[in-house]
């Protein structure tokens, strides 16, 4: 087998392994936050702020995961972007201003 092809296959395998690890990590966080798909009758009754309060995230990653989950299951987004996540942060900033400051202080 050609050396370039062999190196390309190894790089792809490493990327796949990395992606698998990331998926496992996200699944673990999802389980820890008890994020199960909501019942259809309650999908549009809970605000993002209420959802975040209920899940009580402890880190930036947890908050981001909760926002993404909320967008997908409560607002029926098929996919979302980093801009959608930023808008989610803006929606919850006022009620969660104190936790943002605490998390920010922990980072630095």
Describe this protein's structure.
With 108 residues, the chain is an all-alpha fold. The protein folds into two domains: 32 residues; 72 residues, no CATH class. It has five helices and no strands. Helix 2 crosses helix 3 and helix 3 packs across helix 4. The chain is elongated, with a radius of gyration of 18 Å. The model has no long low-confidence stretch (mean pLDDT 79).
SSE blueprint:
Blueprint: H1 3-32, H2 48-55, H3 60-73, H4 82-93, H5 97-107
Summarize the model shown.
With 108 residues, this protein is mainly alpha-helical. Helices cover 69% and strands 0% of the residues. The chain is elongated and about 60 Å long.
Got a strand count? 0
Mean pLDDT: 79
State the share of residues found in helices, binned by percent: 55-70%
Structurally, the number of domains stands at 2
How far the N terminus sits from the C terminus, by CA atoms, comes to 49 Å
Order of helices and strands: HHHHH
